[in-house]
Amino acid sequence: MPPDTLQQARAKRGEKPRYCGVIMLASSPSGKLLKFPTQTEKISGGKPPLLHLVLDEFGRVTHCHASRRQRSISNGDYWVDIWSDPNKAKHVFELALEGVPSQLELAFAKTGETFMASLVPLHSDRMVVAVGVALASRPRSRPPTRDIVGRLGFLTAAKRLQARRRNEEFGVAILAIDDLARFQIDHGYEFGEQVVTALHDQLTQLHPPPDLVARLGDDQFGVVYGKSSQFLSIDTIELAQLGSVQTNDGATVRFVVSGGHSQNSSVSRSVECLLREAEIAYQQSLRQKTGAAIGFTGEMRNAMQKRASAIAIADRALSEGRIFPYFQPKVHLATQKLVGFEALLRWTGPDGAVQNAGSIAEAFETVHVGRRLNEVILSETLRIAENWRSKGLLIPVAINFSQLDFQQPDFASVLIDRINAAGLPAEMVEVEITERVLLDDDNDTVGQALERLSKHGLKLTLDDFGTGYASISHLQRYPIAAIKIDRAFITGMEHRAESVSIVKGLIGLASDLGLEVVAEGIENYEQFELLKGLGCPIGQGYLFSPAVDPDEAEIVAKEAPTWQTHSSFGAT
């Protein structure tokens, strides 16, 4: 049972209830709660007090006092349940005052930075009970900026600054420490806070200094700057080397910072808009992994709108069952015989037209939609492959997997179980991944999963090979069995000697390492002849066939055609 509240304790002692003002208050008209130092005031008997609440620039209550003279300050604070009634013109909250339901009415009679509020007894059938007691921190007239003020507190302060500079330049930035959680895991939470403090100090010591630096969350700061020249000091410094912190054993640890910013110059925009644009630029900075502050551009807005549209389209297509796999043949170039398929996502629009995955590519990067897309393709491909196997068609099928798949617990074990449940031999399923999956493998989770899949007998293929900066090192670290030369090197290779040289080198490297090679994007006879002459064993592309539906793929597998690759042959 929870401990007695002070109200219950006093009732047992026969004492009369007292009013106890618990300062836990939302300062914004939206009624959203903010955290701030708390203080409790008690007044014996009589009418409830009138409380004066004083807020700082972030909208946090710094201290309060009662209008009555006889009062005492308590060192206890009570956790209470709070409700907001959005239908009331005056924002009304109900809260427990020593277990007695009461009403806190915000009149918002503002004088300077002081808000007036009155506590009034409220008789209600709903009983509100305090469930615990905690020590109250001593009130501070101005909380340190390193305290988390949140997005709402930052907006409150930024709006005041913008109101004073209606016709002046005004900018908002977001800067965040990359992998703060890793610092906390490796060195402890207190060390992580030292990293945060170091970033805060770096920002406030810039010249010229920003107008406002506020902590939005555990690893993130919001910054307000006036003229564009002020932010230049943030934009031009090497954020990757912004600061360093010493561990307890004397080692120096550097932290990397990513950021985004948006400037309000010729076109007047609200603080909310600038902050949203800064957040978009910050997300772009994270994707680029460069440790830099990126300015918001119109192209980013277009990309954001395109991404939102793609997610909405994919989500609706999933709900309506309009996502399915098509299968593109993989051909042995020397014999022009079918050696397998690659399962590729296709979807139909409202008009019934089949469209490729590129039109909703952005949706694959979101967790809630991307995983569902991957799941549909995996489930359907296994079902179709199981049907082919039952008809004696043991044709290998390559399935693409993303980093979202490998983030799921026991991904390898679950995949193996599903393949076994479908009755498919391991050699019928190939796992295709891109280099991005491997780049996100900080704790070797992906490596362990790939080892498990490889030991089960699944062929692992590295897609888009040659486009990443660490492709060759990945061949040493992971159990890759095949590489797919990216279509960027195949397209136009008949006209570019350097492309031929690169492809020749990749084929030779793979051969020396005992890896299978697949060239994707073969579209004409000249490319086919070049690749065959360079010793590339397998290819796929429109020269042979586009991706086709399961029924047509089954016909192709049964007939096992030999493609006549002469100069007049092409996709139909």
Automatic annotation (TrEMBL):
Coiled coil: none annotated. InterPro entries: Cyclic-di-GMP_PDE-like, EAL_dom, EAL_sf, GGDEF_dom, Nucleotide_cyclase, Rev_trsase/Diguanyl_cyclase. Pfam families: EAL (PF00563), GGDEF (PF00990). It comes from the Bacteria. Residues 307-561 form the EAL domain. CDD domains: EAL. Residues 168-299 form the GGDEF domain. GO terms for molecular function: cyclic-guanylate-specific phosphodiesterase activity. This is EAL domain-containing protein (Putative c-di-GMP-specific phosphodiesterase class I)/GGDEF domain-containing protein. It comes from Devosia subaequoris.
